[in-house]
Each structure stands twice: as C-alpha cells, then as structure tokens.
Design a protein that fits this description.
146 residues, mainly alpha, 5 helices
C-alpha cells in the first residue's frame, strides 16, 4: 500500500513540475511578446498618422524586435501548447519550420529597416515590411481576439 501511495505521489509531483515548466515558458514568451508590442504600438500610431514621427521611438522598436525575434520561437516547446492564458494556436507545432522561418525573417527585416529608416520619408515602406511580418504570423499562429 505504501508503495502505491509513493508512486501516486511521485506521479502527481512530476505532473505538477511539468505543468509549472509549461506555465513558466508560456509566461516568459508572453513577457517577450508584450515588450515587443509595447515598443511597436507607438510606431504603429505613427504609421497610421495618429502620432507624430519620432525616429528614436522607431529605432528603439526595431531594436527590440531584432533582439526578441531570435528568442521568441525557442519559447514554444512541445510542452507549452496549453496552459496559462496562451493564445498560441496548435498550428505553431504543426508547422514549426514556417513559424521559425517567419521569426527569422522578422528579425532580418527589422535589422534592414533599422538601417534604412533615417527620417519620416524612409519610414513608411520599411515599416510596412516589418509590420507585415507581425500581421502574417498573428493571422496564422495566434488565436483571434474576441
């Protein structure tokens, strides 16, 4: 009887640890994505003409994207498909190569845009390319907002 209790307890502890790791990585990726979103939001307003152009904010946002783009796709291990308040769709794990390629392209495009955007005139086209990466990934790999 004691052996059964120990086996059940060990199993429960293992499940708890696995769930904790799952929620931990989900939280970590959400933190990175939030930082990207916070950096991009004012630049999106500039792009839409809702805010004045500010080169420093644009460059800062591109730097954040460039730093986060290689990190974020590593934060989607198989044990993080569910749990927490994830908005990740199963499609990420079904088409991991495409998901990772999109992040790589986002990082590359952010670096190109960082060099290309020097003023308000060079901003729209380069930013559109970067933002297009974000939108394409959101449509395919993220649950729609309700």
């Amino acid at each position: 009887m004691r052996r059964i209790v120990l086996v059940v307890a060990a199993f429960a502890l293992g499940a708890t640890v696995a769930a904790a790791q799952n929620v931990t990585v989900i939280k970590e990726r959400q933190d990175h994505l939030k930082k990207m979103g916070d950096a991009v939001k004012p630049v999106g307003a500039m792009y839409k003409g809702e805010a004045d152009f500010d080169l420093a904010k644009v460059q800062a946002a591109l730097k954040v994207i460039g730093e986060k783009a290689p990190i974020v796709p590593t934060l989607f291990p198989d044990d993080s498909k569910t749990g927490g308040d994830t908005e990740a769709l199963p499609k990420i794990w079904e088409d991991k190569a495409d998901f990772e390629a999109r992040w790589k392209k986002l990082g590359e495009d952010a670096k190109v845009a960082e060099a290309a955007i020097t003023d308000e005139d060079t901003f729209p086209d380069a930013w559109k390319t970067v933002a297009g990466n974000c939108g394409g990934c959101h449509k395919k790999f993220r649950k729609p907002k309700e």
